[in-house]
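Proteins fold reproducibly. Look at a sample protein:
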Amino acid sequence: GYAAAAGPWLVVGYEPHPENAALYRRNAQGYPVRVFERAVTGPARPAGSAALVLGKDYQGTANTWRHALEEYTHYRGNVTAIQVDTVAFDEALTPDVTFVKMVRGLVIGLRSLRFGVGP
């Protein structure tokens, strides 16, 4: 709310899970917010796609907010994975990004509206 409403800024978020990205978009309606449905990866990994492994809750049900890319996950055994688009962290950071925050894996960046919106 505050960052988006405080001035001529655009809040940009990256969330790989389709249901979570849709929820973020719906909650941000009316604010200068753009959510990209992509996983942010390290700079050595080129943009493309990757397997997103869904963790399970205590009852064994796949959970959309407990997820990690396959190469980084600690979830093992009978897990569910979906293919998601990826973007390298350094590609997501354009010169107009002035602030970066990670919220449980959601990457949020503030960009000046006079520049482009990003990948």
About this structure: Strands lie at 9-14, 33-36, 39-41, 48-56, 62-69, 80-88, 97-103, 106-112. The helical segments are 2-5, 18-27, 89-92. The first helix runs from residue 2 to 5.
